[in-house]
Amino acid sequence: MGKDNITIIVSHTHWDREWYMSFQRMRFRLVAMMDQLLDLLENDKRFHSFMLDGQASPLDDYLEIREQQGRLETLVRSGKLIVGPFYVQCSPWLQTGEGYVKNLLEGHLKAEAFGNDAMKVAYIPDQFVHFAQMPQVFKGFGIKSIVFSRGMGNQQEEDNLGFEFNWKGPDGSIILGLHISEGYGQNTRLQSDPDEALNQVLFSKGAVNRYNKATRYGLMFSGNDHSLLQPVLPDVIELWNSIDEIVEDEGIVKHGSLEEFVNIILKAGEDLATTTGEIRGHRYQNSFQGVFSSFMPLKVMNFSAHDQLERYAEPLSLLARVLAGTNYEGYLSTGWSWLLKNQAHDSSWTASWEPVMDEMVTRFDWAIQIADEVKRWAFLDITSRIDLGDALEKQVAITCFNPSGFDRKESITVLLPSKAPLEEGFTLLDASGSEVQATITPRELGNEEIFEIRKFVESQGARPKYYYTVHTEPVLVPSVGYTTLLMVPGTRLKDSKNPEKERIPGKDLFLKAGDTTVENDVIRIEFNQNGTFNMKDKRTDHVFEELNYFEDISDVGDGYQFIPIIGDSPITTKHLKANIEKAIVDPYAATYLITMDLEVPAGANKQHNWRLDGHETLTIKSRVTLQAGNNPRVDVNVQFTNTARDHKLSVTFPTGLRAREVEVDGHFGCTPRGIKLPEGEKWKVQPEPRGPQHKFVNLTDYSGEKGLLIANKGLPEYEANLQDDETVNLGLTLMRAFGRWGVHVHENSPVTMENAQLQGKHEYEYALIPHQGDIFKRAYAGALAFRYPLHVEYKGAYNKYQGYFPNIDQPDPFLPPSRSFFKISPLPLVLSIVKKAGRSGDLILRVFNASNTEEVLGTIETSLDLKKVELVDLNEHEIEGTGMVLESGAHSISMKVAPAKIVSLKLTLA
Description:
The chain is an alpha+beta fold.
């Protein structure tokens, strides 16, 4: 303390788009606040500035109601109203890496549209887990500092951190960290009388005085959740600075901005302590981890929308623009808008009030619908330009798109119409004209498939008479590209070397399927009577035993927290007898259906201290699929109907492996996490064995020679538990059903949430990929292939897009039957996105080195003619001196990529 101290007070409001009220109801309060704010900022010149919670979306939400564009532009341009850097305050681990970048880019573009740059401080006051790559991501937008309140664990003591510290990312990027452990909710509801308000501010100052500061500068806030303005604040500041006794003890106070405060700290040049790695703890404030498992069907929709936009709609719309001149930008921006509006943190946590969850379903569905239609229309723009040569009248072209940055050789499954019965014979040809082995199964169409086949009134052509599921042998599909197969009815499939000898599907692939065992070249599975299975990796001889058992336990928490009843023991399927049957077996894959009935208590009592005596039966059906040949991936599809309440259902995989840490896929790479929990003394909430992930969690044993990777589709919570024999069990949370809201506010909250009980049908997908220690040799690519399946379309005998598609007018074909547009090599160099630039018509191609330890000499190959390549930051501005003018027709870029580095390229085509 002392007269030389300077404290800056930042005026703000922490604005949740929706939380305990739905968006439309909450917006009435936003508009009232913004009306008052505009008047205050225009009329009181002493009121320095106002921070709009580090986001820009409130501008859009306000302008839909009030026509105040000009007033807002004036205030943003002058710096009085501070917006960004985000479009919405999100939950980082519930956005993909590209989704997070999109959020920041849209925040910057919105600020620019209003005449100023976005705030260059990552103000994230109410997020729970801060990913390790944040320093690099923020530096990619010119952001100098992160200001946060939740998430700090034991780093404060272990690394000797203070209020100000340096945070170092895995690539070496360093930004300033400011830990506001006392939160952001200070100096709100100030009395209108300056003398009384001064006492309130002095009281708040006492709390922030507890910060262990490295400089003489202090930071306070004026505002809180959905708070209105404090017009008296300039009077309070003048009064404070006029009283010598206060100045002598506390120093002076200034009204300022967060960015000004950060610049002061940076200019002070103090030697600050440094921490590394992610920030996810509960020592100083609650960092609620239950948000990663609540409303799991919405979590699946969330990641599906991200995947469809990022990995299919974006690259295909870009290629359609380059090859066909079509423009889907309006659709993409609208799809992203609906998705981003679901990323507001209390929304994405799925910890809001019931109507919010219902409305999120619609917004996710709209984003997915738009992404899916862009994918299909843009792909048709491309495939309609493929030169198929002399087409036979009845042939059907099957075109497959590979969204990955590497070639994939996979079996293809497609529902195919035909004008002729394929049972009488067919030939399937690949892009080179070689025969492809395949099996066919006649199909009856369901309602959705009927609409899929014939979507439009007055669609052209007669509806086909025959429908089949076609399943092929593995076919090579080039990276970020396509290949075409031709189905020709009416001829027999022959051996290419001996036309008189009929080819036998699957003869070149090994798959042996018994009643309770199945194996391919590298994996052998034995199903146990209780529904689990043992999996032998033939390459390492390691046997993973009793995989895939289910565990149920009580949950009397809410959207923020998983809270089991004290003393409750899990109920598992390990004691059950399951029904095991071969569901589908052909030469290319075998699927087994495992059915078991798990009895669980019907719910919890009203006092939430025991489970009821009545029981509900959960019939759990697991479809376990193994592909033929040299494929180490085992796919699992789980379906059940939930009729119980107040419980958590998870699936467990005993690995039999000993390890100190797991690796989880996250934002632009892998994050290591210790399995042994940290000391939780003095923590608000004790450390938990569960944590967030994106595409997978991986465990590699001490020897580094064997491991198990569990991939998933939209299941963001894993669990890693150390057993008595020091081996590790991995798990995935499938569902949390609870009926309460606001337990974190009051443990006996009377508010109920009926839709959070998740009654009804559930379906989830995950995959097991054993490996030989180095996930980049194969397992990582397998996880990407599982998460991003091939997209398959057909045309020819019946063009389901014919009719009302004015952009498709039977163009002259010029594309080859198979083509790769971009290829990235080698792993661990990973393609992140291919898209159109936000400020120009150029291409943005982003890659990252998924290894935290190895430098990669990487190559990017393209079949497009390059004119210029620029290295750009994440905000898509050129990094000075990195523009390369290439020879016309250049098709390759080579570069060294440091460990954990993100590289963004802007490509100008010739």
